[in-house]
Amino acid sequence: MMLLHDYRHIRLSAADFKDVWEHYDVDCNGYIEEQEIDKFLKDLFEAQGQIISKSDIAGLRATLLDCYDLNHDGKIEIAEMSRILPVEENFLLKFKLQNRPISNTNFLRIWRHYDKDRSGVLEKSELQRFILDLMKTNKNITIKPKEMDQILEEILSHFDQNNNGLIEQAELRSILKVPENFLEEMNLYDNLSPEQFTKIFSHYDTNGDGFLQGEELLDIVGDLMRRVEVHLSIEQLETLCQNLLSVIDVDSDGRISQTELAGLFFTSSTDPASVSGSARMPHK
User: Model-level pTM greater than 0.85?
Assistant: First the structure.
């Protein structure tokens, strides 16, 4: 088991980081507190050839908590520890640690990350990498190399709907339990009421500031295109949003107000996929 030796010169693998965490989280309560932090600091400095006294540790602990204790509870949690030690990135932790559903935009980022050859499917080696990261998002789940074939077989048997031995986008959506498109059941084409439009805007205005920008804009445009069965890559979606901003962002502030979004839903001169002239809802 690797602990803190030469930690400055390498990046810990996810497995090594897990070993380090479990070594110091002695009572397995999901965080390290005073005595556990003190032992971690002592070992950390000794790994660099430095000996610290007991009188110094209290000050170092206070400094550590000040820098890394993001929720100010006087403890270090696993996500906070990952900021202290250099760890190889588990790409899925960006999304799973948020404890929220995966948006279409984030799903497209996940897909791009694992579909290395841009083939449009996850082949065996890509799927293995995805599985390893997926298992490691739960600290109670570990996987041994010899178990991989069995897990691959189980995943394919449950999710490979066309039995081609590959995982396609729709199948990965099922694995990750990506929520259904919010707009799927909306009547967007005939008599969309102001109340329905406000409900749509509020759903995507996740921070409640009265504007759609960044991830919010990517999410609504991505869902609009999926609503008409146009499936974009994350790069295509980002380009479409930039083009769309140039059309309906009337005051050029880089964000879309509810009034500006109404132009996309209620004006009838062009399609958001072409974004030339005024914008309207895409039709099937």
Answer: no
